[in-house]
Amino acid sequence: MLSRCTCRLPVSLTLTSILLALVAVGIPSTKLHGQTPNGWELLGRGVNYGNMLEAPTEGEWGIRFDDRWPEQIRQAGFDTVRLPVRWSTHTDTKPPYRIDPAFLERVQSIIDRNLQQNLRVVVNLHHYEELFADPQGHRERFLAIWKQLSEAFQSAPPNLYLEPLNEPHDKLQGELWNELLVEVLSVIRPKHPDRWVVAGPDFWSNVSALPRLKFPENDRRLIVTVHYYMPFAFTHQGAPWNQPILPTGLNWDGTAQQQKAMDDDFQLVIDWAKKADRPVYIGEFGAFEKAPTESRARWTQAVRERCEKHQMGWSYWELASGFGILDPATGRWREPLLKALLPSAQPDGR
Ligand code: BGC
Questions:
Q1: What is the mean pLDDT of residues 115-131?
Q2: Which atom of ligand 1 is nearest to the CA of 286?
Q3: What is the mean pLDDT of residues 314-318?
Q4: CA distance 116 to 19
Q5: 3-state secondary structure string, 144-180?
Q6: 318 C-alpha to center of ligand 1: Å?
Q7: Spatial distance between the Cα atoms of 161 and 157, rounded to a whole number of angstroms
Q8: H helix or E strand, kind and range, residue 260
Q9: What is the mean pLDDT of the chain?
């Protein structure tokens, strides 16, 4: 498994070395237009550490990060982990908006454990609900959080990717989000001129919102991300946080019509990314545990195959909770889902 992991990335490594060399001789990354690597080279196959650090406090949603997971994830054949973090509940509500040092240390140690396994890590800012309800009122605090994070992560290796905000929505949309993205980049870039930064459209990073998303043209180190949960009635059946709860028992058979709907969605992403000349990362996709197992596996495979066909990086939502591919009680992979993501994985490799 490990040899497969090392040999499937030569292009990205070569490209990264070239980019680093160009940067070293002083050619700014803004001149690299036309040599954009694709999302697959950058992020490959991944999984989200969901429901852990983006709960109001770790453990509150029934699951804590387990030190054994990075190795298990790497051994199965993943390249990347995405780490959702709710910084807002660990940050002072008054200026200078200090992040709790113990929490920052906890997150940093989890990042390090994953980097040590040669996993790429996408760390984000997740569930800042007050920002979505009142973007102006929370702008300064949001930027202060990223100023501290950019300092904390300044010496991290290039395998750390920053994602300033998960799923903008509610009042944070359209031009307001485009402008806030530029602002947060101006906070991050002084310490991270060449680090890859991930950002997606408003409306929960839904494909349909892509036409509203604008990336600053001169920043060539941005990856566009989209979250894919379509058809929603299938992926979120029985999910208790979605009210009214959607009826269960709905299959996804992969009919010609269902395949076409998925192709059409992917085409919107491909078109946007081609025009903007940006790598693509499907940073979340998954079907909740209440959906029929065979259909979940079929749908998961269909999304994953499209990502790979179109050279997009992907990260399944999520590891060990309600969408989980791993049973936290036994430490074992859920085989049908793991195989849908990594056909040649060794399910019991632990
Ligand atoms: C949210 C999760 C949710 C998932 C699927 C994520 O972005 O943070 O809470 O389970 O989407 O709805």
A1: 98
A2: 5
A3: 99
A4: 23
A5: HHHHHHHHHCCCCCCCEEEECCCCCCCCCCHHHHHHH
A6: 9
A7: 9
A8: helix 256-276
A9: 91
Number of domains comprising the chain: 1
- For a substitution probing ligand 1, which of 303, 317, 318, 323 has the most ligand atoms within 8 Å of its CB? 317
Amino acid found at 190: P
With a 6 A CB cut-off, is 265 part of the ligand 1 pocket? Answer: no
What is the per-residue pLDDT across 162-208, written as a single tens digit (0 to 9) for each?
999 999 999 999 999 999 999 999 999 999 999 999 999 999 999 99
Nearest to 159 by CA among 191, 189, 194, 190: 194
* Centroid of ligand 1 to alpha carbon of 119 (angstroms): 22
Task: Give a yes or no: residue 228 inside a domain.
Answer: yes
CA gap 205, 210 in Å, rounded: 8
pTM of this structure = 0.90
How many CB atoms neighbour CB 309 within 10 A? 10
Domain that holds residue 122: 40-341
Give the CATH number for residue 328.
Answer: 3.20.20.80
Q: Does residue 350 belong to any structural domain of this protein?
A: no
> For residue 190, how far is its CA from the centre of ligand 1 (angstroms)?
31
Residue 158 has pLDDT above 80, yes or no: yes
